[in-house]
Amino acid sequence: MSAELVLKTIKEKQIEWVDFRFADLSGRAHHITLPAKEVDEDTFVNGVAFDGSSIPGFRGIEESDMVMMPDHGSIYVDPFTAHKTLNVFCDIFTPDGERYERDPRSIAVRAEEYLKESGIGTAAFFAPESEFFIFDDVRYESGMNKTYYSVDSEEANWNTGRSEEGGNSGFKIPVKGGYVPVAPMDKQQDIRSEMCRLLEEAGIRVERHHHEVATAGQAEINFRFDTLTKTADNLMIYKYIVHNTAAQYGKTATFMPKPLFGDNGSGMHVHQSIFNGDTPLFYEKGAYANLSEMALHYIGGILYHAPALIAFTNPSTNSFKRLVPGYEAPVNLVYSKGNRSAAVRIPVAAVTPKGCRIEFRTPDSTANPYLAFSAMLMAGLDGIKRKIDPTKEGYGPFDKNIYELSDAEKGEIRSVPGSLDEALNALEADYEFLTEGGVFTKEFIDNFVDLKRAEARSVAIRVHPYEFGLYYDL
Fold this sequence. Notes:
The chain is an alpha+beta fold. The chain folds into 2 domains: 3-100, Ubiquitin-like (UB roll) (Roll), CATH 3.10.20; 123-471, Creatine Kinase, Chain A, domain 2 (2-Layer Sandwich). It is built from 14 helices and 17 strands. The strands form 3 sheets. Strands 6, 9, 10, 11, 12, 13, 14, 15, 16 and 17 form a 10-stranded mixed β-sheet that branches. Keywords: ATP-binding, Cytoplasm, Ligase, Magnesium, Metal-binding, Nucleotide-binding, Phosphoprotein. Belongs to the glutamine synthetase family.
C-alpha cells in the first residue's frame, strides 16, 4: 500500500486521527497521534519527530531528537477509540536519515534483508502461539515494609469454597485441568470470540481459539503465519487487542509467563520455516519428520545458540519461573517430532509440504517480537551456513517423554539457562551469529544486556515474602 492509498483510506473511512506507533527494547508500544487533516504525503517522507531520551534504552538527552518513519503497509483502524483512529507502525530513524540501530523493528527488517542476501531463501515465515491469562482482579505492591501480589478469577480452583452474592455457581477449573473444556467450565468463550472478531477486523487471519491448561482463565488464540516483520507487527496488534478487549469486559489480561505458582505458565511457541519463492525449503518426504537437511541444520543453529538466544526469547526474570521441569515447560535443548517436552518440536499432524515447519517452544511473550524472531532466524541461518547437525551434536531426536527419563539420562541433556543473568552471560559469550550482515550490532547487544541486568538486579535485591517462612524464626 502506497502513501497515496493510505491517504485515500483516511478519507474513505472518515478517519479523524492517525496514531503513529513504535516498540521500545522491551516490546512495549508507544504512540503519538496527529489530526488526520495534518497527515499528507510529506508525513510519509519526513516522518514524525519524538523525544528518544524519554524511551528506556534509546538515546541520551543530548541527542534526543528522533524520527518515526511510518510504514504505509502496516495500517489498521483502532477498534477501541471513541474518535475514528488509524494506527500505523513506524521504523525509527536518526535526524540525518539513518536507520536507528537500537530500533527493534529496523532490526527485523535487516534480518529479512540478510536472509535474501544470503541466498538461502527469500522469506522466513513465523507463527507464534502466544498464551495469556484473563483475570478478574490484579493487585500488587512492593515497598519498604511490604510486598505482595494477588490475582483472582471466577474460574479459579481456589474459589470452589468462596461465598458469592447469590451463591457459588461451581464449575471451577482444576489445576492443570483447563485444556479445552466447554461451558460452564470455560467462562471466557465470548470474550475470546470478541478478541478474534477484532483481530479479523484489523486484518489478522484467526485460525482458532481455546482455553488453555491452567486454572484461572488461561487462553490461547492462534493467528495465521506471515513473514518475520509482519508477524511481529501482528503480535503487537494481538497483544493490544487482547489487553483492551479484556479491559472493556471489566477484566485484565496478562502475558506474564508465570503469574500463578503451581500451575502451567504462558509460553509463546514459535513456528518457523524458510521459503524460496513459493518453494518450501524445510520439507523432504520420507526423511525424519519429513524434514529437509536444511531444516535440521536450522534446528542445529537454534539449539546450539539457545542459551544466548533465550536472552531475547525469554528476557524477564519471571520467564525463569516458567522454565522449570514438570509444567510442560520446554527446558530440554533437544528436538523431536510431536513431542512437547522438547525445546524444538516438529509438528507431524496434518502437515503439508508448505506447512512443514519447526516449532521452538521455549520463548514467552515478554519477548520483544522483532528482536526474538530476528535472533531465532539468525541462529537458524548460522546453523545452515555451518551445517550444524543436531543429531551429531547430541540434541536428539528424543521421541519419548523426557520428564520420565532417569536422572542419569536427564543429565546427558543440555538445559536452558536457570536465570535471566545466566542467559545474559551466554549472550555476552556467544553473539557473533547475531552481528552477521550488521543485523544486530555489538553496541545494541551491550545496551540490551545492561538494560536487562538492571531489571534482574531490581528483582534480586528485594525481599521476597517466602523468605519470611524460611528464615523469620531463625
